[in-house]
Amino acid sequence: MKTTIVIREAKKLIFLSFVLFFIFQNNTLVAQQKFKVVLDAGHGGKDPGNSGNGYSEKDISLKIVLAVGKLLENDGNIEVIYTRKDDTFLELYERSNIAQKSKADLFLSIHCDAFGKSSVHGAGTFVLGLHENDRNFDIAKKENKVILLEDDHKKNYGGFDPNSPESVIGLTLMQEEFLDQSLMLARLIQDNFVGDLKRNDRLVKQAGFLVLRNTFMPSVYVEAGFLTNKNEGAYLNSKKGQQEMAKAIFKAIKSYKKQLDKNVVIEIKTKPKPVKPKSRIVKEVDFKVQISSSSKKVKTASYNFKGLKGVERVRVGAHHKYYYGKTSDYNKVLELKKKAKAKGYISAFIVAFKYGRKVSVRDVLAGK
Ligand SMILES: [Zn+2]
């Protein structure tokens, strides 16, 4: 009798420890999954940024950053890391170090622009990439020049010369892996600036911002507007303007996170049941998955494409398009697209070619 009680108790204990073990596991999982955002207010301390119309770029950037941070923190599920919360001078590499150490999911740097002609105005959003024109290079050059204020910039930036376009090219390789995600967030932010706030659209662009160099995570650079423009300067310097810009950025981060969450769910859902798809062959047609398009020529080795093998590069005008897979089976290409998305190419889509010429996917499926 006594032994059965002991056994029963022991069983209970084992069961309980299993339960505790799983609760613990789940908790650490949740803790690890907290989405982290690094907010970087441009300039600070001895580096004031631009002072168009007497406004202060470093102050305005900080105020917008703090407002974005507050909205994110109140949201609960997002952890915010600030590169600075007051008027401190930070070297550019320290900013990316903070991002790196925190293993964040996102890096966002906020600035205000200035231009010689006061009529120029509008908000723009940038991702790290080759400068597409002189103006983009000029903005990056201006923002990168701060390293000349730093004592050890030759050592810290591996001989980077802010005045040389060639120096910028080396930077962009680092961010290539996150280009799709960075572009997605940039797009969402810019859409809110233009759609919600009716800011003049300076578009999503690529430029060589040094602060994004060593952030191995999706990274976006916001130029909230031109302080040199009378109305825009006053708007950005006002509490209303700062709150509105912050809200637009906050909403974009939320949508971005939602998109990512969706992808994760899809990936997990499809795992347990690997159903072999029936084939749906369309004769004389090659389906491919377009995973990215870039002005930069990247070697098609799998290490450049998140492990995807057999990526093909095709030059179209000034851009290089990157295709994954090639099959005349539409169901197969759907699988390939799913795989590309799971790897992080969230905007991957299917394209079709007939006798080497690009044709509409819908048309070939309809037998046209
Ligand atoms: Zn700036």
Descriptive notes:
The protein is of the alpha/beta class. The chain has two domains: about 30-265, Zn-dependent exopeptidases (Aminopeptidase), CATH 3.40.630; about 285-365, Alpha-Beta Plaits. It has helices spanning about 1-35, 55-75, 90-100, 135-145, 155, 165-175, 180-195, 230-235, 240-270, 330-340, 360-365, and strands at about 35-40, 80, 105-115, 125-130, 200-205, 220-225, 285-295, 310-315, 320-325, 350-355, 355-360. The strands form two sheets. Strands 2-1-3-6-4-5 form a six-stranded mixed sheet, with helices on both faces. The longest helix has about 30 residues, at about 1-35. The chain is globular and about 65 Å long. Residues about 25-30 and about 265-275 have low confidence and may be disordered. Zinc ion binds near residues 42, 49 and 57.
Helix count?
11
Superfamily at the CATH H level of the largest domain? Zn-dependent exopeptidases
What is the topology, as strand order, of the major beta sheet? Answer: 2-1-3-6-4-5
| Total domain units | 2
Averaged pLDDT? 81
Distance between the termini: 81 Å
At the first level of CATH, the class of the largest domain is Alpha Beta
Q: Which sequence of SSEs, written as H and E, runs from N to C? A: HEHEHEEHHHHEEHHEEEHEEH
Give the topology.
Elements: H1 2-33, E1 35-41, H2 57-75, E2 78-82, H3 92-102, E3 106-113, E4 123-128, H4 134-144, H5 153-156, H6 165-175, H7 179-195, E5 201-207, E6 219-226, H8 230-237, H9 239-270, E7 285-294, E8 311-316, E9 319-327, H10 330-342, E10 349-354, E11 357-359, H11 361-365
Helix pairs in contact: 2-9, 7-9, 8-9
The protein binds zinc ion.
Zinc ion (ZN) binds next to loops.
